[in-house]
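Cross-check.
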Amino acid sequence: MKELDRRLASILTQGFDDSDTIIGKFKLLDSFEGLLNRTIIQDELERKHITLLDLYKQDLKIVSTIFIEGKILVDKQDEKAPISNNLPPIAGALNWTKGLLERIKEPMDKLTQLSQSVQDREEYKDVQKLYASLYKNIKEYDQHKISQWEASVAEQTDDNLNKFLLYREDPSPEIAEGLVRVNFDAVLIRLLREVKYL
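Predicted model, tokenized:
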């Protein structure tokens, strides 16, 4: 039985080393879930958990850098901002931050399921603090964008919604009665697009 456990531990660690992403490493652990309680495998995985914490900490730092640089571009409404071209500015920014949150949330949820001995380590506590700080910053930015949008809605819509939807242009020499035009402001179109995606 111990020989079998050693082989399983060897296979598990080799698969762990071969996985390129943090999510891939967690999926590997999930697939061996029933065997992880064996002492030989637990001892081998203890070392891999520290590696996993280090990788996740590096990923959190990368996401933090992406967030800080992207936030500047989004606020400037730069064409290089990490927003999809088909989304309006506010909904695009919220969609972008949602992707960042998803990237950091799933691994953290998996880390909280690790053994208590891993959670008692200083490395885990550092990762937890970094995660909490980044999560809070992204959520505050989301709230700022929503508040910014709410403030602009009132001032943009009040005047535009009181206008007639159709109006007749002044007559010209070619057209005696003048053309009928739609009096729909571009600001209202953008507002409706925001509402659609929010």
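The CA atoms of residues 170 and 176 lie 9 Å apart. The radius of gyration is 27 Å. Passed to J.P. for a second look.
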